Amino acid sequence: xAAASQPLPEGRYGRTADQRADxxxxxxxxxxxxxxxxxxxxxxxxxVGGQSVSAEVIKFKVVSAKAVEVHLExxxxxxxxxxCTLRALETGGDEVGRKDVRFEQRKGRIDELITVQTTxxxxxxxxxxxxxx
Length: 133
Description:
The protein is of the alpha+beta class and 133 residues long. Helix content is 26%, strand content 43%. The protein starts with 16 loop residues before the first helix and ends with a strand.
């Protein structure tokens, strides 16, 4: 004769250890999830709101074995002064030229052609970054 297994009466003995552990894990997971969302939101806000000078390389043209002409579009606050760093690269990815360009114009959007002198023929131009000064 085998005894039939019957569940415990509900509410009589309280929660089982598994139910208590599940509840704790849910609470810990919720707190960590909210914290992670807060950190990601703060980093995103700081990145977007913290950049008062930004730029984009529209196009570039190799004008000789020792120079590259870059069309750069800069966006900034009208009263802000900014510096953008450009670098010219050769086929292997080595840097063959670098130039810091200062923007003091009282405009919010600036289109400018910049010539970067190189030590050998460049095949690419990279915008390293911009910052306000």
